[in-house]
Every structure is written in structure tokens, then in C-alpha cells.
């Protein structure tokens, strides 16, 4: 998942990508529109998606794990408050219903829908160890050949 680079900004709709930090705030780019803007730290709070978690009866479940569960059972469009709560109870049966509000669920479903449609929730490919070793051996051979060529020229 590629959500490590994304954040939520209080008081603003949608998700943002950090571009630069300044002494009094940050420069962020809207993921949806691509619009870049300065956001003052005095006026806004910034929450990286990787630090957001959902309260459960026993512990907190990271948002990345919530999204992974939602991929197995994606939401349908046009859900009302009761449907959202029912859906979230199916996905995370042990979520703390007194702490997780319908507005939180609505926001999470909207984020999931957008991120899933735009490929942010695709699993990142990890190279096999065999491929990594093979590539490093080829690089070593190439470096050795280059150094031999240089020494022959001298």
C-alpha cells in the first residue's frame, strides 16, 4: 500500500501529499486535484494516514489494516448512516461503536473508495531474494569488467 506518503488535514476535504515543510507550516498537494497550497500549522492539524487507527474493543487497528479488510469486502455506493454502520460492523466486528462515529466511517469509506480506484491500495511488489542476488552479481561482474578495461587502457 502506498498510503505512507498521504495525510489528512483537519478542516479540509480529501487527502494530501506532503511537498515541503516550512517553519510555520507545510506545503501540501491535494491528491485529487493536484493543487498545491501552504497550510499553516497554527490553523490546521496534520494526520499521516499511517498514524490513524480505529478503536476496537481490545486495541486500536491501524488504518492500513482496515483498508486491507475493506478490500476483501468493498463498500457499495449510496450508503446511508445505518448502512455504513452495518457495513463497518461486517468489516471490523469488534470496533468500538461508542468511539467510532458515523462521520468517521463515512470519511474512511470515502478515502478507501478513492484510494482503491486510483491504485494507492495495490500491494507494493517486493523483489525475490534470488532476483536481488542475481542483479547484484551482474553489477559486480560489470564493475569488474569495467575496471579491467580501464587498467588495460593505461
UniProtKB/TrEMBL annotation:
Domain of life, per lineage: Bacteria
InterPro entries, alphabetized: BVU_3817-like_C_sf (IPR049281), BVU_3817_N_sf (IPR049282), DUF5606 (IPR041218), DUF6852 (IPR049280)
Record-annotated DUF5606 domain positions: 4-49
Domain DUF6852, first and last residues per copy: 52-114
Disordered as annotated region, ranges: 122-154
A Pfam family of this chain: DUF5606
Name of the protein in question: DUF5606 domain-containing protein
Amino acid at each position: 500500500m502506498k498510503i505512507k506518503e498521504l495525510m489528512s488535514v483537519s478542516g479540509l476535504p480529501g487527502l494530501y501529499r506532503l511537498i515541503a515543510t516550512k517553519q510555520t507550516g507545510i506545503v501540501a498537494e491535494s491528491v485529487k486535484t493536484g493543487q498545491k497550497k501552504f497550510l499553516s500549522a497554527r490553523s490546521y492539524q496534520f494526520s499521516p494516514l499511517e498514524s490513524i487507527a480505529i478503536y476496537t474493543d481490545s486495541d486500536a487497528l491501524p488504518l492500513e489494516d482496515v483498508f486491507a479488510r475493506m478490500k476483501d469486502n468493498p463498500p457499495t455506493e449510496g450508503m446511508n448512516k445505518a448502512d455504513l454502520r452495518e457495513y463497518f460492523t461486517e468489516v471490523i466486528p469488534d470496533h468500538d461503536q461508542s468511539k467510532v462515529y458515523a462521520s468517521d466511517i463515512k470519511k474512511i469509506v470515502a478515502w478507501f473508495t478513492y484510494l482503491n480506484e486510483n491504485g494507492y491500495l495495490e500491494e507494493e511488489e517486493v523483489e525475490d531474494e534470488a532476483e536481488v542476488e542475481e542483479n547484484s552479481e551482474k553489477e559486480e561482474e560489470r564493475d569488474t569488467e569495467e575496471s579491467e578495461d580501464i587498467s588495460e587502457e593505461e
